[in-house]
Fold this protein.
Amino acid sequence: MTTVASKSKLDLAYYLALITIFYNLIEGGVSTFFGTSDETLALFGFGVDSFVEVLSGIGIAHMILRMKNHPVENRDQFEVTALRITGTAFYLLVAGLVVGAFLSIYYASEPETTRVGVIISILSIVTMYFLYRYKLKVGHELDSQPIISDANCTKTCFYLSFILLASSLLYELFKIPYVDALGSLGIAWYAFKEGREAFEKAKRKSVACGDGCC
């Protein structure tokens, strides 16, 4: 039976999931816009990754709503479908970034500026850090593997932000050739791992311990 304290913590987990969704929507929109206009592949890929994380976040929010009514041991069809769509979207992102990076290197294309990438990555690092810490705290207090897993997904976004920051800062300060393309390949590597884990979760369906990050 769910206690009043548990419901309160689940409410907090749900609000954190919603904040993650809306933040990623804004971050994705801004990143893809400036990634296109400034011709920076790393920023554009980071933005698309944010949009894919929205799909994952919707599945998590749906699961938390179910958890508020009764204990959850397995994913329902909505969550499984969301994971499969998320995994497919990540793989498509990987393919696009790899092709884009090699074309960028082949044609010696360079961004006009990566200043926006520096700003967005710093904002993302701060935001994702606090979301990760609060999600992890709530997950441990509820002894909930799905919420802890969601916190680990947020930690992955935290790492991605550092890749964007490094590539954007190095290019903005020193104009190092191909660093933007290398940054996009770093984002592609994390996107590949996230896609693979999403499909593994969809196949396993259980939300028991051992569930990795999506």
About this structure: The chain has six helices and no strands.
